[in-house]
Amino acid sequence: MRREAGLVAGRLAVECLADEPLAAHLSMRVGGPAAALLRPRGVEQTRALVGALARAGVPVRLLGGGSNVIAGDGRHDSVVVQPVAGAEDVVWDGARARVPGGLALGVLLREAMRRGLTGLEWAAGLPGSVGGAVVGNAGAFGGEMSRHVRAVELLGASGEVRRHAVGAGDFAYRSSFVGPDELVLDVDLELETGDTEAVRRETERVNRRRAATQPKGGHSSGCIFKNPEGDHAGRLIDACGLKGRRRGGARVSETHGNFIVNDGTATATDILELIEEVRAEVARRTGVSLELEIKIWQATPVAGEGSS
Ligand code: EPU
User: Is 240 a catalytic residue?
Assistant: First the structure.
């Protein structure tokens, strides 16, 4: 499978990293090697690559900015596709923009500020890609991605392209209409006309609020759990006295209970065990069953493992 992926990538001149440690590409900084990491640039290359891999019978795993995935420590038998894009790939039309899914959210915010476009300041400091922010309907400080998305072009696992005009009911809290095997090729966003100085001030205000309430330093995946209806996962974890709880190099943040911080020495196993410990303790003490916001990519089981 790795060979086929390498051949397809070579033919299409797509960057291909063999046996690439996922830790280097995930904000939690853990995870063993993937058979191959393919990084197509721009919409056309991404479309051609996914289509060709499908025709070659190579199943793929899709990765956005890597801020919401925790990958297991062992080998990952999968071929991972992570589209990449730069500021020059965005097409601006007044307050509207067509943005590649692979663009880093931070780059989009910088460009919007430069153009005096307002609306996305709530996302200041968020890691991850625009595509990932759409799929998970990222939100913070009263803002939410869904408010700005007008249409999305999606690429299915077999290479077919589908354009979706956003309608009522397409987004909910931390979820969207995008299917698990669909890749966000590009997104039509609508912002509002403002001015650069006002956008800068609001961005700084958000940055200050984030710095006061969320951990700085170490590596993390943002919030681990979704907020349960009518409450906050961080508040529940805090109320259960779990802040500071440790497993190896992983600890529940003392600043915000819904963050797990890797001090740089944690393994994925440390983090996943700590997540389970927190979940079990919150369920035992409060009766609330917390649901994951992050995605877990289990490593490929070693042959013979788990068999009797
Ligand atoms: N709280 C505690 N202890 C804690 C953390 C929070 O008591 O350790 C209390 C706070 O005092 C506050 C309430 O819980 O009364 C809510 O806290 P916060 O304002 O930090 O918001 P949150 O619901 O915990 C959500 C998002 C964050 C986003 C912030 C800011 C989720 C799961 N989390 O957190 O998003 O940055 O609001 O608006 O929806 C993420 O999605 O990765 C993420 C970090």
Answer: no
Cβ atoms of residues 178 and 101 within 8 Å: no
Residue type, 275: I
Look up 110 and say whether it is catalytic. Answer: no
Nearest CA to ligand 1 atom 10: 235
Question: Is 293 a catalytic site residue?
Answer: yes
**Placement of tokens 């894009």 in the chain:** 85
Q: What is the 3-state secondary structure (H, E, C) of 205-232?
A: HHHHHHHHHCCCCCECCCECECCCCCCC
- pTM score over 0.90: yes
| Rounded Cα–Cα distance for residues 203 and 209 (Å) | 10
Give the three-state DSSP class for 241: coil
Q: Is 258 in the pocket of ligand 1 (CB under 6 A)?
A: yes
pLDDT in tens, 42-53: 889 999 999 999
Mutation test residue for ligand 1: of 235, 238, 255, 259, the one with most atoms within 8 Å of CB = 235
- Give the residue whose CA is nearest to atom 14 of ligand 1: 235
Of residues 135 and 42, the one with the higher pLDDT is 135
Upper half-sphere CA count for residue 281 (Cβ side, 13 Å): 17
CA 224 vs CA 37, 82, 173: distances in Å: 25, 22, 14
First to last CA, the chain: 28
Residue 136 near ligand 1, beta carbon < 6 Å = no
